[in-house]
Amino acid sequence: MNINEKTDEMIDRKVILSTLWIFALFNYMYADILTLMDPAVLQEMMTGTVGGLEMTQEMLLVGAILMETAIAMVVLSRVLKYRANRWANIIVGVIHTAAVFLSLFVGTPAMYYTFFATIEIACTLLIVWYAWKWINPTGTCNCSGVNAVKYASPFKICKAIKETSTIATTIVASINFKRSANKARFLFTGLSII
């Protein structure tokens, strides 16, 4: 795989992650729009308590921040570099999966809400899985130790072996040079005694 193919693969991965966030956002929004059409939920909203939770300014701020993270991921998935991009998608995906899952236990969810929640959870889990499986396209390993070998691609392992081999060759050559120098010194000392 050449550099252009690696770059194309990284761009494709970014586009797919961004598109998945757009898909999740449409589901979030349409579930909320349908909720506004549900007379039972509308009555609860008018009282300021929905599903047993009081809708305070702080609660609404938390909801706004949660939605803003998904909106931001549409852009961030396209512009962040590999490492930050991968971890941002994993962390925000886990947070959104947990939030939607937990929302199913607030009151009794309507059938339409359960339907949308299932799709949203599947989408955010796909985002997490897709980001988790994303291998560094540059082929360099940013980790060390046993886990580096466990999770490294064959390209990374071959590169590491080659680098280790080069270092080992240098060390052996250095040792051989020192031995040769010691032998020469010993020979020279022996000759001077004679």
Structural class: mainly alpha
Shape: elongated
Q: Classify the helix fraction into a percent range.
A: over 70%
Strand percentage lies at under 5%
Major beta sheet, specifics? 2 strands, antiparallel
Instruction: Give, in spatial order, the strands making up the sheet with the most strands.
Output: 1-2
**CA-CA gap between termini:** 65 Å
- Mean pLDDT comes to 79
Q: Regions with pLDDT < 50 over 5+ consecutive residues?
A: 144-152
User: Got a strand count?
Assistant: 2
Number of helices: 7
Order of helices and strands: HHEEHHHHH
Q: Calculate Rg over CA atoms.
A: 29 Å
Total domain units:
2
Structure notes:
The chain is elongated, with a radius of gyration of 29 Å. The longest helix has 40 residues, at 154-193. Mean pLDDT is 79; it is low at 144-152. It has 2 domains: 3-132; 146-193. With 194 residues, the protein is mainly α. It has helices at residues 3-36, 39-47, 57-79, 82-103, 111-132, 146-151, 154-193; strands spanning 49-50, 53-54. 80% of the residues lie in helices and 2% in strands. It contains 7 helices and 2 strands. Helix 1 runs antiparallel to helix 3 (57-79) and helix 4 runs antiparallel to helix 5 (111-132). Strands 1-2 form a two-stranded antiparallel ribbon. Strand 1 (49-50) and strand 2 (53-54) form a beta hairpin.
